[in-house]
Amino acid sequence: MTPVGPRTLRLGIIGLSEGNGHPYSWSAICNGYDAKAMADCPFPVIPRYLGQQSFPAAMLPGAKVTHIWTQDQVVSAHIARASLIPNVVTSLEAMLGEVDGILLARDDAENHFRFAQVFVRAGIPIYIDKPLALNRRAAHQLLDMTCYPGQVFSCSALRYASELRMTPAQSARVGAPRLVDAVVPKDWQKYAVHVIEPVLFQFCGADAIEGIHRTCAGGVTQLLVSWRSTLQTRFTSTGTARAPIEISVHGSEGSVRMRFRRAFPAFKAALAAFVSSVNEHRPAIPEQDMLRVVDLVETGCG
Predict the structure, then answer these.
(1) Helix, strand or coil for residue 224?
(2) Could you tell me the CA-to-CA distances from 105 to 4, 47, 69, 122, 141 in Å, in that order?
(3) Fold type of domain 9-157+265-288
(4) 99 CB-near residues (< 8 Å, 6+ apart)
């Protein structure tokens, strides 16, 4: 095993699901990357935004991805070359005893239990890519086997995207929020969480849901949620229709529109939150918050 610093977490990463390049990007955020090998990454946006950063200064301190497993050894080897991962393993179990935490970098929620269970049962902290699950039953299947609070960390990295968080000046311009209108492209199951999570985190707090209305037509899914505070939130996934990831807030004084633009700092901030939770032995996101996100994802699935 390649030695790392005494206070550096050793992370194992699991991938790869269709359309999801997180094993490349998350590992590069921790390790740095080989530009020549990364140029062949099948997700061209990743080498583009990595190339806009200044490495090694841009790397996340305190953690290194030291092991990788995917369902394809050729894919594993390429990710390892591109993202400077020293150990390619042939089984999930080979990471046991070798890593301090796991990054489950697949967004096919239906497979999360399959890949996570060995580590959850072993008491290893694990970051599970969004969405944690597509329904509360599946979420509890994972969460109920945890060995301690906060062992499972799961979120959309957009929870931490600064451009989706209102500044004090924007809050003053809006006044009291009345309607939060959030839009994301692609399908509801995988992508609605990207706007559900930052909206709940920023605007809903401990507010209770009063009513929900779902519509789905032409591949576009909308969920209108009424809250006890009288706030209305509307979540839309546009299917095949092109759209930015955007949150508009309309309030008693005015409106603001916030658009997601920068993947790297959001991913880095989410990874940093996970690393801090492991080091500090505390949950980064309360379990009830993760479950509330799952509830809305499940409702939107119909």
Answers:
(1) strand
(2) 22, 18, 10, 19, 19
(3) Rossmann fold (3.40.50)
(4) 10, 11, 12, 66, 67, 124
The yes-or-no verdict on residue 1 having pLDDT over 50 is no
CA distance 227 to 239: 26
One of 3.30.1240.10, 1.20.1330.10, 3.30.360.10, 3.40.1280.10 is the CATH number of 162-261, namely 3.30.360.10
What pLDDT is recorded for position 6? Answer: 47
* CA angle at 271 for the pair 195 and 192, rounded to the nearest 5°: 15
Say how far apart CA 44 and CA 140 lie, in whole Å: 36
**Position 5, amino acid:** G
Q: What is the pLDDT of residues 134-171, one digit of tens each?
A: 999 999 999 999 999 999 999 999 999 999 999 999 99
| SS3 state of residue 151 | coil
